[in-house]
Structure formats: structure tokens, C-alpha cells
Amino acid sequence: MRRDTKQREVILKVLRNTRSHPTADQIYDDVRKDLPNISKGTVYRNLQVLQEDKAISALNINGTQSRYEAKRESHYHFRCEKCGRVFDLDEPVDKELNKRVSKKTGFTVSHHQMEFRGLCKDCQ
Amino acid sequence: MRRDTKQREVILKVLRNTRSHPTADQIYDDVRKDLPNISKGTVYRNLQVLQEDKAISALNINGTQSRYEAKRESHYHFRCEKCGRVFDLDEPVDKELNKRVSKKTGFTVSHHQMEFRGLCKDCQ
DNA sequence: TTAGGTGCAAAACCTTTGCCATCCC
DNA sequence: GGGATGGCAAAGGTTTTGCACCTAA
């Protein structure tokens, strides 16, 4: 069973009080203001636990390794959460979205990426 | 100026001949069939160069570090390519997309992420 | 000729893990 | 009490980098 600990509580509090999408290291620094003795291992372990519990989410897709592809017509991806394979999709890319976001935000939008996730045929 | 090297050529060839979105390590293994003496450093360096030249692209967003956020209503992100900051967008999330992709592919689609890229207001 | 590129190995980074002490239920 | 969790430090895995030697232009 899951126990309540000060460490986990503070990590979650930090994430709930920011909109800055911090890295593990930034979270660590922030948490140390409350818990000067917390270790990085604990931060990482709790970030995982909190993800399992759906209390937080990681923006980055699939951990640390980069994947590459030759430049093609722009397209979206599907990543299987079990086997980790990445597939190209036929779904048409909506370029209007870039303009719409640009208009709303005032940012210069050059492109967007979309990734669907779930289970591929082999893994269902 | 950029010179043509056998190493870069083979790396690009490998990426053009696959749809498997390989990692740097997988590319390295593949390239070594042609160039047994190539080093990993060279692979990494060329993957960067090829990205600069827009000949290839990395699927992963923003290198190796993960960023986290507390769970919120699902939403899309914008990442500034200059300062690296990530912003939440108001753009409505289109859940129909999941169903459409699922129908087309036969995959089980649980969710999707979208990230827009460009320059934020401060960096333009 | 010479600036850009390569190989090699070490370093840098980020993340995970083993171990033992500690704490929550 | 006993299993879950934490702190610490070492290990692991990926990517970057310094340096001396090469090579395309």
C-alpha cells in the first residue's frame, strides 16, 4: 500500500504551485527549501510514483533516448506504451492550428508535433 | 562550410531507408555494417548536423531532460525554441482524434499530446 | 593548404538502484 | 512489527567533448 510521506507531499505541492513545467532538478531545488535533506533519488522515485498515481505527468515522451527519422512530409506519430515502437500515422496534419495558436497567443508558431499513445495491434 | 563525408552520408542513408525511428545506438549499429570503424561520437555529431540542415528530425522533444506538471485538465503545450520555456495553451483538446486514429489503425488509443513550437513573445 | 570532420576515450549529464536506516500504518 | 520509503552514494545509460590525426575541397 502507499504511505503518505512529507517528501511526496512537498513534491506534489511544488508541482501544483507552478506552471513552469520544471525539470527534476528544478523540483529538487525547490523542494529543498522545505526539506533541505531530501535526496535526488527520492525526488526521482516520487516523480515516478506520482505518475503511476496519475497525480502528475511528464511532458517528455518515453524517457531519455532520442529517436530520429529522415525528414518527410510532416505527419503524426503513435507510440505503443508496451513495446515502445513508434509508428507514422496517415492522419492529415492540420496546419491551420499553427495560425490559430499564433493568433491567440502572439507567439510565432513554426510547427507542431502530435503523438498518440496506447497499445499497438501486437500488444493489445 | 560543410564537407561531404562518407560517415554523414551513410547515417542519412540509414535513416532514409527505415521507418523504425531508431535511436542513436540503433543507427550506430546499422551504420557499422558499412563503416565498421565509425565512432559513436561521430554518429551523435552528425545527427546534430543533419538536424541543423533539416535533413532529419528528432522525435523527442527537448533532448534528455524530462519536465513535469501536476495533472490538470488535458491541454496542449507550446515550447519556445529559443529560451526553452514551456507554456500551456487554451486550445481545446480534440478527443475525437483518438477515436479516428483508433478506427484507422486498429490500435488502442488512450490519449495524445501535442506540442507547438516557435518563438514566445519575449524571444521574437 | 586548411578548416571541417573523425576516432578514441574521458567527461558530463540525467536517472536508476542497492543498501541500510527510518518512518508510517 | 513490518513493509514502504528515504538518504546516500555508486552504478547505469545516453550524449557531449577535448585532442591529435585525417581528409575533402
Blueprint of the fold:
The structure is a homodimer of 124-residue chains.
Chain A: H1 6-16, H2 24-34, H3 40-52, E1 56-58, E2 68-70, E3 77-80, E4 86-88, H4 96-105, E5 108-119
Helix pairs in contact in A: 1-2, 1-3, 2-3
Chain A binds a DNA duplex (25 and 25 nucleotides) through helix 3.
CATH class of the largest domain in chain A: Mainly Alpha
How would you describe the shape of chain A? extended
Q: Averaging pLDDT over every residue of chain A, what do you get?
A: 91
Q: How large is the share of residues in beta strands of chain A? A: 15-25%
Number of strands of chain A: 5
| Unreliable sequence segments of chain A | none
Question: Do you know the CATH architecture of the largest domain in chain A?
Answer: Orthogonal Bundle
Largest interface, per-chain counts?
A-B, 65 and 65 residues
State the domain count of chain A: 2
Helix count of chain A? 4
The level of helicity of chain A is 25-40%
Largest sheet of chain A, in brief, is:
3 strands, mixed
Radius of gyration of chain A: 19 Å
What is the chain-wise order of helices and strands of chain A?
HHHEEEEHE
- Spatial sequence of strands, sheet with the most strands of chain A: 4-3-5
CATH overall fold name of the largest domain in chain A: Arc Repressor Mutant, subunit A
* Quaternary state of the chains: homodimer
Distance from N terminus to C terminus of chain A (CA atoms, Å) equals: 28 Å
The helix-and-strand class of chain A reads: alpha+beta
